[in-house]
Amino acid sequence: MTLSVSGLSAVRSGRTILFPTSLEIEPGARIGLVGASGSGKSTLGHALIDTLRAQGSCVAHVPQSPDEALDPLRRMAFHWREAETALGLPHDADRQQALFRALKIETGDLRKRPWGWSRGMQQRFVIAMALIGAPNLLVMDEPTSALDPIVAARTMVLLEDYLAARDTALVLITHDLGLAAGRVTRLLVMNAGRIIEDRPTSELLAAPRTTQAASLCAHRNWLALPC
Amino acid sequence: MTRSLLGLFLRAFVVLTGTALATFTLLWNAPGDPALAIAMARFDAVVPADVIDLVRAEAGLDAGFWAAFRGWVVPLISGNFGNSSVTGRPVWPDLASATSYTVPLALAGLAIGLAISIPLAVLATRHPGSWLDRFAVGIASLGAAIPAYWLGLLLILLFAVKLAWLPAMGATTPSHVILPALTLGLGVAAALTRIIRSGILEARGQPFMPALKRRGISEHALAREHVGPHAAIPVITVFGLELAFLLEGAVMVEVIFGRPGLGSFLVGAIEARDFPKVQGVVILAALLFVGINLVIDVIYRLIDPRMGTQNA
Ligand SMILES: Nc1ncnc2c1ncn2[C@@H]1O[C@H](COP(=O)(O)OP(=O)(O)OP(=O)(O)O)[C@@H](O)[C@H]1O
Ligand SMILES: [Mg+2]
Question: What does pTM read for this prediction?
Answer without folding.
Answer: 0.78
